[in-house]
Design goal:
Blueprint: E1 4-13, E2 16-25, E3 34-40, H1 45-52, E4 68-76, E5 86-90, E6 105-108, E7 114-115, H2 122-144, E8 154-157, H3 163-175, E9 178-183, H4 189-195, E10 197-202, H5 203-207, E11 219-224, H6 228-237, E12 238-246, H7 260-263, E13 268-271
Parallel strand pairs: 8-9, 8-11, 9-10, 11-12, 12-13
Antiparallel strand pairs: 1-2, 3-4, 3-6, 4-5, 5-7
Helix pairs in contact: 2-3
Protein backbone atom coordinates (compact mmCIF):
# COMPACT_ATOMS: atom_id res chain seq x y z
CA UNK A 1 0.00 0.00 0.00
CA UNK A 2 1.37 3.42 -0.93
CA UNK A 3 2.19 5.95 1.75
CA UNK A 4 0.38 8.83 0.03
CA UNK A 5 -2.69 9.27 -2.12
CA UNK A 6 -4.93 12.02 -3.44
CA UNK A 7 -8.49 12.83 -2.41
CA UNK A 8 -11.04 15.57 -2.99
CA UNK A 9 -11.53 17.37 0.31
CA UNK A 10 -14.57 19.55 0.88
CA UNK A 11 -14.31 21.98 3.76
CA UNK A 12 -16.41 24.83 5.07
CA UNK A 13 -15.11 27.85 6.92
CA UNK A 14 -17.27 30.82 7.94
CA UNK A 15 -20.03 29.75 5.57
CA UNK A 16 -17.75 29.36 2.55
CA UNK A 17 -17.42 25.92 0.95
CA UNK A 18 -14.15 24.90 -0.70
CA UNK A 19 -13.27 21.77 -2.66
CA UNK A 20 -9.64 20.90 -3.28
CA UNK A 21 -7.65 17.85 -4.37
CA UNK A 22 -5.13 17.21 -1.59
CA UNK A 23 -2.31 14.74 -1.07
CA UNK A 24 -2.85 12.75 2.11
CA UNK A 25 -0.96 10.11 4.07
CA UNK A 26 -2.15 6.60 4.82
CA UNK A 27 -2.27 7.51 8.51
CA UNK A 28 -5.14 9.91 7.69
CA UNK A 29 -7.45 7.17 6.44
CA UNK A 30 -10.61 6.68 8.51
CA UNK A 31 -11.22 3.65 10.71
CA UNK A 32 -12.40 0.41 9.15
CA UNK A 33 -11.44 -3.20 8.52
CA UNK A 34 -10.89 -3.01 4.75
CA UNK A 35 -8.69 -0.67 2.74
CA UNK A 36 -9.73 -0.23 -0.89
CA UNK A 37 -7.87 1.28 -3.83
CA UNK A 38 -10.68 3.17 -5.54
CA UNK A 39 -10.87 2.77 -9.32
CA UNK A 40 -14.13 4.56 -10.08
CA UNK A 41 -16.89 6.62 -8.47
CA UNK A 42 -19.94 8.12 -10.14
CA UNK A 43 -21.09 11.72 -9.87
CA UNK A 44 -24.56 11.88 -8.35
CA UNK A 45 -26.93 14.77 -7.72
CA UNK A 46 -26.21 14.57 -4.00
CA UNK A 47 -22.46 14.75 -4.71
CA UNK A 48 -22.98 17.98 -6.64
CA UNK A 49 -24.83 19.46 -3.69
CA UNK A 50 -22.03 18.37 -1.36
CA UNK A 51 -19.14 19.72 -3.41
CA UNK A 52 -20.78 23.09 -4.04
CA UNK A 53 -22.24 23.46 -0.57
CA UNK A 54 -25.66 24.12 -2.13
CA UNK A 55 -27.35 21.94 0.48
CA UNK A 56 -26.33 20.58 3.87
CA UNK A 57 -25.40 17.13 2.62
CA UNK A 58 -22.15 16.82 4.54
CA UNK A 59 -22.57 16.13 8.24
CA UNK A 60 -19.06 17.27 9.16
CA UNK A 61 -16.02 18.99 7.66
CA UNK A 62 -13.54 18.35 6.19
CA UNK A 63 -15.05 15.44 4.23
CA UNK A 64 -14.38 13.31 1.16
CA UNK A 65 -17.61 13.32 -0.92
CA UNK A 66 -18.86 10.65 -3.31
CA UNK A 67 -21.73 8.35 -2.31
CA UNK A 68 -20.45 5.31 -4.20
CA UNK A 69 -17.22 3.68 -5.34
CA UNK A 70 -15.73 0.56 -6.92
CA UNK A 71 -12.23 -0.70 -6.36
CA UNK A 72 -9.82 -3.40 -5.25
CA UNK A 73 -9.03 -4.48 -1.70
CA UNK A 74 -5.39 -3.81 -0.77
CA UNK A 75 -5.56 -4.66 2.93
CA UNK A 76 -8.17 -6.48 5.00
CA UNK A 77 -8.72 -7.39 8.63
CA UNK A 78 -12.05 -9.02 7.81
CA UNK A 79 -12.56 -12.72 6.99
CA UNK A 80 -15.03 -11.66 4.28
CA UNK A 81 -12.47 -9.94 2.05
CA UNK A 82 -8.87 -10.45 1.01
CA UNK A 83 -6.38 -8.38 -0.99
CA UNK A 84 -7.22 -8.48 -4.68
CA UNK A 85 -10.98 -8.76 -4.18
CA UNK A 86 -12.98 -6.36 -6.35
CA UNK A 87 -15.75 -4.60 -4.41
CA UNK A 88 -18.41 -1.93 -4.68
CA UNK A 89 -19.99 0.37 -2.11
CA UNK A 90 -22.97 2.69 -1.95
CA UNK A 91 -24.98 4.18 0.89
CA UNK A 92 -24.25 3.93 4.63
CA UNK A 93 -23.78 7.72 4.69
CA UNK A 94 -20.56 7.52 2.71
CA UNK A 95 -19.94 10.89 1.14
CA UNK A 96 -21.99 12.45 3.94
CA UNK A 97 -20.69 11.52 7.41
CA UNK A 98 -18.16 8.90 6.24
CA UNK A 99 -15.47 9.22 3.58
CA UNK A 100 -16.87 8.69 0.11
CA UNK A 101 -15.53 7.60 -3.22
CA UNK A 102 -13.73 10.72 -4.45
CA UNK A 103 -10.38 9.44 -3.25
CA UNK A 104 -7.70 7.10 -4.54
CA UNK A 105 -7.69 5.15 -1.27
CA UNK A 106 -10.39 4.56 1.31
CA UNK A 107 -10.78 2.50 4.46
CA UNK A 108 -14.29 1.29 5.25
CA UNK A 109 -16.25 -1.14 7.39
CA UNK A 110 -16.44 -4.60 5.87
CA UNK A 111 -20.23 -4.77 6.11
CA UNK A 112 -20.52 -1.74 3.84
CA UNK A 113 -18.87 -3.57 0.93
CA UNK A 114 -20.40 -5.87 -1.67
CA UNK A 115 -18.36 -8.19 -3.91
CA UNK A 116 -18.37 -7.03 -7.52
CA UNK A 117 -21.04 -9.10 -9.31
CA UNK A 118 -19.76 -11.59 -11.85
CA UNK A 119 -19.90 -10.23 -15.40
CA UNK A 120 -19.37 -6.60 -14.40
CA UNK A 121 -16.16 -4.61 -14.53
CA UNK A 122 -15.42 -1.96 -11.93
CA UNK A 123 -15.98 0.70 -14.58
CA UNK A 124 -19.34 -0.77 -15.61
CA UNK A 125 -20.44 -0.94 -11.97
CA UNK A 126 -19.93 2.78 -11.53
CA UNK A 127 -21.33 3.60 -14.97
CA UNK A 128 -24.53 2.12 -13.56
CA UNK A 129 -23.79 3.52 -10.12
CA UNK A 130 -26.20 4.55 -7.41
CA UNK A 131 -28.47 6.16 -10.00
CA UNK A 132 -28.82 2.87 -11.85
CA UNK A 133 -29.45 0.99 -8.61
CA UNK A 134 -32.13 3.52 -7.70
CA UNK A 135 -33.78 3.12 -11.10
CA UNK A 136 -33.84 -0.66 -10.79
CA UNK A 137 -35.23 -0.50 -7.25
CA UNK A 138 -37.94 1.84 -8.56
CA UNK A 139 -38.98 -0.58 -11.29
CA UNK A 140 -38.96 -3.50 -8.85
CA UNK A 141 -41.14 -1.54 -6.42
CA UNK A 142 -43.67 -0.76 -9.17
CA UNK A 143 -43.81 -4.36 -10.31
CA UNK A 144 -44.29 -5.49 -6.70
CA UNK A 145 -47.50 -3.42 -6.80
CA UNK A 146 -48.70 -5.43 -9.79
CA UNK A 147 -47.45 -3.35 -12.71
CA UNK A 148 -46.88 -5.37 -15.90
CA UNK A 149 -46.23 -4.34 -19.51
CA UNK A 150 -49.10 -6.49 -20.73
CA UNK A 151 -51.82 -3.81 -20.99
CA UNK A 152 -49.48 -1.16 -22.45
CA UNK A 153 -50.79 1.64 -20.25
CA UNK A 154 -48.48 4.65 -20.03
CA UNK A 155 -45.64 4.72 -17.51
CA UNK A 156 -44.06 8.15 -17.10
CA UNK A 157 -40.46 8.83 -16.07
CA UNK A 158 -39.62 12.31 -14.80
CA UNK A 159 -36.18 13.84 -15.07
CA UNK A 160 -35.86 11.37 -17.91
CA UNK A 161 -32.51 12.59 -19.23
CA UNK A 162 -30.84 12.39 -15.81
CA UNK A 163 -29.05 9.45 -14.22
CA UNK A 164 -32.02 7.76 -12.53
CA UNK A 165 -34.42 8.79 -15.28
CA UNK A 166 -32.42 7.61 -18.29
CA UNK A 167 -31.65 4.27 -16.66
CA UNK A 168 -35.32 3.83 -15.74
CA UNK A 169 -36.33 4.59 -19.34
CA UNK A 170 -33.87 1.95 -20.56
CA UNK A 171 -35.02 -0.68 -18.06
CA UNK A 172 -38.74 -0.09 -18.62
CA UNK A 173 -38.30 0.10 -22.38
CA UNK A 174 -36.33 -3.12 -22.37
CA UNK A 175 -39.10 -4.84 -20.41
CA UNK A 176 -41.68 -3.74 -22.97
CA UNK A 177 -43.45 -0.95 -21.11
CA UNK A 178 -45.10 1.99 -22.86
CA UNK A 179 -42.69 4.64 -21.58
CA UNK A 180 -43.38 8.38 -21.66
CA UNK A 181 -40.31 10.51 -20.93
CA UNK A 182 -40.79 13.83 -19.13
CA UNK A 183 -38.05 16.33 -19.92
CA UNK A 184 -37.61 20.01 -20.61
CA UNK A 185 -34.90 19.49 -23.20
CA UNK A 186 -36.14 18.65 -26.69
CA UNK A 187 -32.58 17.88 -27.79
CA UNK A 188 -32.64 14.75 -25.60
CA UNK A 189 -35.65 13.19 -27.36
CA UNK A 190 -33.60 11.17 -29.86
CA UNK A 191 -31.38 9.86 -27.07
CA UNK A 192 -34.36 8.89 -24.91
CA UNK A 193 -36.12 7.27 -27.86
CA UNK A 194 -33.06 5.07 -28.41
CA UNK A 195 -33.25 4.07 -24.75
CA UNK A 196 -36.89 3.03 -25.08
CA UNK A 197 -39.17 6.07 -24.71
CA UNK A 198 -42.22 5.91 -26.98
CA UNK A 199 -43.54 9.42 -26.27
CA UNK A 200 -42.58 12.65 -24.53
CA UNK A 201 -44.19 15.21 -22.27
CA UNK A 202 -42.77 18.62 -21.42
CA UNK A 203 -41.83 18.75 -17.75
CA UNK A 204 -43.66 22.05 -17.30
CA UNK A 205 -46.99 20.35 -18.01
CA UNK A 206 -46.50 18.18 -14.94
CA UNK A 207 -44.91 20.89 -12.78
CA UNK A 208 -47.54 23.60 -13.34
CA UNK A 209 -49.64 24.04 -10.15
CA UNK A 210 -53.39 23.46 -10.38
CA UNK A 211 -56.30 24.30 -8.11
CA UNK A 212 -57.95 20.99 -9.03
CA UNK A 213 -57.17 18.15 -6.62
CA UNK A 214 -57.72 15.54 -9.34
CA UNK A 215 -57.40 15.63 -13.11
CA UNK A 216 -57.91 13.18 -15.96
CA UNK A 217 -56.45 9.77 -15.15
CA UNK A 218 -53.47 8.96 -17.34
CA UNK A 219 -50.49 7.21 -15.76
CA UNK A 220 -50.46 3.57 -14.73
CA UNK A 221 -47.19 4.22 -12.89
CA UNK A 222 -44.39 6.73 -12.55
CA UNK A 223 -40.69 6.83 -11.72
CA UNK A 224 -40.12 10.26 -10.18
CA UNK A 225 -36.67 11.65 -9.46
CA UNK A 226 -37.89 15.25 -9.30
CA UNK A 227 -40.45 15.66 -6.49
CA UNK A 228 -41.95 19.07 -5.67
CA UNK A 229 -44.65 20.35 -8.04
CA UNK A 230 -43.89 17.54 -10.49
CA UNK A 231 -44.87 14.98 -7.87
CA UNK A 232 -48.02 16.96 -7.12
CA UNK A 233 -48.87 16.90 -10.83
CA UNK A 234 -48.32 13.16 -11.00
CA UNK A 235 -50.57 12.54 -8.03
CA UNK A 236 -53.42 14.47 -9.67
CA UNK A 237 -53.16 12.49 -12.91
CA UNK A 238 -52.48 8.94 -11.74
CA UNK A 239 -54.84 6.19 -12.80
CA UNK A 240 -56.72 4.20 -10.18
CA UNK A 241 -54.40 2.07 -8.05
CA UNK A 242 -51.42 3.51 -9.90
CA UNK A 243 -48.06 3.74 -8.16
CA UNK A 244 -45.30 6.35 -8.02
CA UNK A 245 -41.74 5.34 -7.13
CA UNK A 246 -40.21 8.51 -5.68
CA UNK A 247 -36.45 8.84 -5.29
CA UNK A 248 -35.47 12.49 -5.71
CA UNK A 249 -36.12 16.10 -4.81
CA UNK A 250 -34.47 18.07 -7.62
CA UNK A 251 -37.75 19.97 -7.98
CA UNK A 252 -38.04 20.74 -4.28
CA UNK A 253 -38.83 19.00 -1.01
CA UNK A 254 -42.23 20.61 -0.40
CA UNK A 255 -45.33 18.80 -1.63
CA UNK A 256 -48.66 20.54 -2.21
CA UNK A 257 -51.39 17.93 -2.60
CA UNK A 258 -54.56 16.56 -1.03
CA UNK A 259 -55.59 13.19 0.33
CA UNK A 260 -57.92 12.66 -2.65
CA UNK A 261 -55.51 10.77 -4.96
CA UNK A 262 -54.98 8.30 -2.13
CA UNK A 263 -58.51 7.81 -0.82
CA UNK A 264 -60.48 8.14 -4.08
CA UNK A 265 -58.07 6.51 -6.55
CA UNK A 266 -55.99 4.33 -4.25
CA UNK A 267 -52.72 5.81 -5.51
CA UNK A 268 -49.55 4.35 -3.96
CA UNK A 269 -46.57 6.60 -3.18
CA UNK A 270 -43.46 4.45 -2.78
CA UNK A 271 -40.29 5.86 -1.28
CA UNK A 272 -37.05 4.57 -2.81
Amino acid sequence: MTDTFQALIVDQQEGTTTAEVQTLGAEQLPEGEVTVRVAYSSLNYKDGLAVTGTAKVLRSHPMVPGIDMAGTVVESHSPDFKPGDEVILTGYEHGESRWGGFTQLNRVRAEHLVPLPEGLSLRQAMAIGTAGLTAMLSVMALEAQGLTPADQREVVVTGAAGGVGSTAVAILGGLGYNVVASTGRAETHDYLARLGAKAFIDRELLATPSKRPLERERWAAAVDAVGGETLAGLLRTMAREGSIALSGNAGGVALSTTVLPFILRGVNLLGI
